[in-house]
Amino acid sequence: MIDVKNLVRTFKDGPIETRVLKGINFTATDGEFIAIMGRSGAGKSTLLYQISLLDEPTSGEIRISGKEAHLMSEHEKMLFRLSKFGYVFQDYALLPELTALENVTLPLFMQGSSLEEAEAKASAALQRVGLGTRLGNLPSQLSGGEQQRVSVSRAIAHKPSILFADEPTANLDRESSDRVIDIFKELHRNGQTIIMVTHEDEYARIAGRIVKLDDGRIISDSRV
Amino acid sequence: MFSIINIRVGFYLALRQIRRASLWTTGLIVFVMLLTFLNLVVVTGILVGLIEGINNSYRTEYTGDVILSALTTKNYIEDTPSVIAFVKSLPQVTMLTERYQTGGTIEANYLTRTSDTEKPNATSAQVIGIDPVAEDAFTGLASHVIEGHYLAEGDYDQILVGNYLLAQYAFGELPGLTPLKNVVPGTKVRLTINGAVREVVVKGFVKTKIDALAMSIFMPASELRTLMGRTDQNVMQIAIRLQPGSDPIAFKNLLLTSGIGEKAKVQTFADSIPNGVADIKKTFAMLGNGFSSIGLVVAAITIFIVIFINAITRRKFIGILKGIGISGEAIEISYIFQSLLYAALGSGIGLLVLYGFLVPTVAAHPIDFPFSDGILVAPIDGTAVRILLLVLTTVLAGYLPSRMIVRKNTLDSILGRN
Q1: B2 versus B389: which is more confidently predicted?
Q2: Is 3.40.50.300 the CATH number for A2-223?
């Protein structure tokens, strides 16, 4: 489903060039749960941003479901992100002026559903992560764990092909982290493709495959 | 850009952002919009109203809606009684007043002057003979008497003097006009008309902002006719007031087609006002528009800054929105809707303040300018154009900064990178 070849990402700061990804080759198939690991600065989040089409590679190819994503226009990428991908960010990335229900409703509404339909789907997604009673709460009225579950709901409500998660448990306590990972496990059992960046071995082992990066290169790719 | 989905998502976002925004911030922006709206309408309205006040004064205090005056080749309106009879027979006419007019000289120190070389305390003036009752009913002249008393029917050898003829009320000595000094109600003065001299008493002073009247002397028509040596009934002016809603131009044309134009010069109140006044009105309207445009630019900059700060502080969230697949256009539209709301609220409140308070208040209590009782002119069509200008400017000022932020790299926005 995802095929990455010779992926390079270089950041420029004036005359200084920093090559963060140094020719990554990587393939992910449907239904996989992949954990990307590595020490800080290894390039794991940068890799996630490239394959989730949030950033532009400096060079290399990214094919998603046979489509050449590295050649897509910004508009095509936006449509792809909207319909095919789901995102869970480390800091939840919820919109502060929207309630939990509205945060989850928004991308569904953008996809063309009627407001009632979008809200019904969003409500079901929130109930699925145990937040059925917090629909009308603003993010500021929710705990960190609850906010991350809203973020997960937003990411899965439209049934994406791939769920991308960037250190989803980094800001959570143990109990909340377990809860989020439990949701991921259940999603994976139901066939959801998940690519998750994490630095926690315990959660990485839950994934079926662990890809380790160091200094912008894949140093190991193993199945658990 | 303006696809249905983008518009509805933009509206969805805008509505929630506005609903959960700080009331103080929203209130402040709306207040700025309100002030801008009033600046747009009121500055021009007052400047134009200042001149419109002159027009109104001419109409109410002097000419009426239509005025007949002697032809340039004559000293009076020929066959005045039949002209008056015809005019009175027309259903549009509510009232009229007749005036005699001639030039004269008024001298105040003729009793105390000791030698022929002493400069006389005298001035030339237009002398207007009126029917005191009819004139007051028509122009409210009695209400302009600021010292002394108004003329009564049957007054003999008594006059009213216009304020420009009096040193204490005049602007100063204008070329050809030397105001009278030391004259108070009750002072005896000598009036000379066509060589006929009569000693008269100043009964009162008239203060008006119409130059033609401020430089005039008023006396009962019967007295002036005697001084002028007139035995006929032909007058110099007939001012005509029409029924409310009647069109003065149509009435003027009616009189002309009826042959009145052969006996008198027929003018609407607008025709009778000196040409320069219309030019000044246009000039003031241009000036008002110039000042207003500055206000518009200030409002645009205010909205730009407000939306820019709002967008830049929300850059991360804009990045997240784009990241999860919300189109940049929908985000931009959400800011356009917010700007539209500010402009609509500001204009809406402005309309209420303008037509509910300012226009009626200034109409009831005109602004006392030195040469006019200024009103606030705010025609609906002109106001609508200004609202449209304000809305367009605001929308542009809201769109541009949001576009600047939305166009930034999605990931950079999410991560807060420059």
Answers
A1: B389
A2: yes
